[in-house]
Amino acid sequence: MVLEINKLSKSFGGIVALKEVSLEVSRGEVLAVIGPNGSGKTTLLNLITGVYVPTSGEITLGGKRIDGHNSAEICTSGIARTFQNIRLFKQLSVLDNVLIGFNHAFKSSLANVLGKGRRFREEEKTFREDAAKLLEVVGLRGKENVVAQSLPYAQQRLLEIARALATQPQVLLLDEPAAGMNSEEIAHLIQLIKTLRQTGLTIILIEHIMDLVRGVTDRVIVLSYGVKIAAGSFEEIERNQEVIEAYLGKGAAKTC
Ligand SMILES: Nc1ncnc2c1ncn2[C@@H]1O[C@H](COP(=O)(O)OP(=O)(O)OP(=O)(O)O)[C@@H](O)[C@H]1O
């Protein structure tokens, strides 16, 4: 297993946002985490990426405990994410946004960077080439010099993915990547996720748009009020009565 989560809980004062959630994902697997609003999906991502410290439970990446580590350490250990609310350097170019993702990989000394020494220039050239390749992978080739904020919304989401990939993660966490996308853009995203999975990347996806979940996931887990209420294939989840009730409410579920 690449990532294992064991009985993870998080409380905020009296609110239990996540209660003893366990899951595991293997190399090249795409796992979707779904659930109604407020069910704990973002809290789970924030725990995995070190934004929050768990109240209890364990997170291991490649067999090593990472719970309690800070976000920078977790990123360096191989977990990258995109955000529900896009977080780009909006005034910078598309290419520069991806180059920032390579930040941790620069080996030049500070003096070399400031003086733009030979080592720095060589490294920068390699990273520029790698960044251009990543832009090609996500479908943003030719947009290198465009200012990030002038990209259409869906392309800004793709740029976030390219930036996350620049950190060379083993696990990529996507927080509602299809939000605001039309059906053509979702089809492109499905293709991209399939391509990334073939490279061995492990992906955890939080998503409300079921076309995307159906299109790319191997397994789905469902959260409701912070508790994992179901796990299985999309087809199994779709038929699960408890899941239908969690989404629609008990009365509505009976009429389905
Ligand atoms: N920082 C926080 N402080 C207090 N309560 C929080 C905090 N973060 C989340 N919560 C609470 O924890 C619960 C789970 O929230 P969370 O944002 O994880 O749900 P979600 O499934 O991601 O929802 P959505 O689909 O609307 O994004 C909610 O009751 C929320 O109000």
Automatic annotation (TrEMBL):
Classification via SMART domains: AAA
A UniProt-annotated Pfam family: ABC_tran
Keyword Transport recorded: yes
Alphabetized UniProt keyword annotations: ATP-binding, Nucleotide-binding, Transport
Matches recorded under InterPro entries: AAA+_ATPase, ABC_AA/LPS_Transport, ABC_transporter-like_ATP-bd, BCA_ABC_TP_C, P-loop_NTPase
GO MF annotation list: ATP binding; ATP hydrolysis activity; L-isoleucine transmembrane transporter activity; L-phenylalanine transmembrane transporter activity; L-valine transmembrane transporter activity
PROSITE patterns according to UniProt: ABC_TRANSPORTER_2
Gene Ontology cellular-component annotations: plasma membrane
GO term, biological process aspect, one: L-isoleucine import across plasma membrane
Record bears the keyword Nucleotide-binding: yes
Record domain ABC transporter: where: 3-250
Domain of life per record: Bacteria
Protein name: ABC transporter domain-containing protein
Species lineage: Bacteria, Bacillati, Bacillota, Negativicutes, Acetonemataceae
